[in-house]
What does this fold into?
Amino acid sequence: MSTQDLVHPLEILNPKVRARFPMIDRDSMGNPRIYLNTGAGSLTVDTASEAAFDAQRRLNPMPGVVAAGEAETAGLHSRIRDLAADFLHAGDGREISFHQSATAALFNLAYALRGVLRPENNLVVTDLDHMANVSPWEAVWREGRGLEVRRAHVTSDGQLDVDHLLSLVDSRTGLLAVTSASNGTGSLVSLPRTIAAVRERAPHCLVAVDAVHHAPHGILDVREADCDFLVFSGYKVFGPMQGVLWGKAALLERLRPYRVETNKNEPPWKFEMGMLNNTSLAALGAALEYLLWLADLVAHKRDSPQTGAVPVWGRSLTSAGPEASIPDRSSKFRSALTAIAEYETGLTRSVLEGFRKFDAGRFRLFGISEPSRAGERVPTFAFDVAGFGATETKKRLWEDAGIQIADGNHYSAAVVRHLGRPEGICRASFAHYDNLGTVDRFLEALGRLTNK
It folds into this structure.
């Protein structure tokens, strides 16, 4: 039996997954829709909304150790730090700090590196990145300190040009800012290989990773990547607007972030400006715990396929057999994100195969287009329909089929300039709560548009 004959557990479990997202098939006005804009913000899982309401209603504003309410608030902060650390396969919850957004976290990180980066250093950023991992380095270090900031190019198929990046790195390179997945073209970056190659040329180079777009699609392992800092956002992993910054403990001790005098001058607290948003933290915890629930659900399905059902993906693909039990949270996160990446690769392949049926004179995909390379990208697709601007294409898909996509530069200004579309491009982005039916309806609606 070939792998094509196997059914992934998340395909079988899709109805249960979709049931966890109250807004999966309707918008805020109750209108039917197909939401293909996860790249701009994922749908919110049910328990995240419930946790936010409960925290707002009940929790004490400030943490403490005396009264029950303040002790519970302190416990919440500690619990969510530990949960986020396990999500990233990091060592300690004290390496996690919370911020208004990932952008705010990166600006604070850039400022905090004064005293670590030196006047003789240069920095390398990439044209593949969201501007949140470009502008802080240019503003703080090029404009503010006069350091040279070099930009690595993008290849013709929308990937990071690693060869060009490495040509920019020398013994004086103090920091590389890089994404793990492009929110413009969907291309993945192999962090372990890229970072190891950079460190061969610049052994002491720091690496700051923007993993916001990658976080809902695959494993984030800061130890395996050997990066120094990483950010992700709660609203891309089925939860709230909440930026999360991880850094190696020894480095965090050395940094000097924005801080009022009375705030603790030790990590993680010295990175957090003002009181933490308890409602967002509670919702973030629930969103991450949803992934643990998903890991258990997938493990159970792999262990107990229904009698007479199509063989379940995983039993024939791994010599270790079914995952009947997953011993710890880090392993559960790895299991959940592995399953998501596998399942979404199948969705990606189906989308790319569908795109091949369109008239090449009327439709253009930016980025990796070969179905056989589906595993090299996440299910985020930037495209053009000839004769229509990005906003007009978005409008027609909405009016014709109730499909919600994005238009504009998606805060990837260098990407759209590289693609020759400074006015913006269309972007459809899927997640693991989507299915082949979603893919078919999208392709049908887009096909009608390309035939006009």
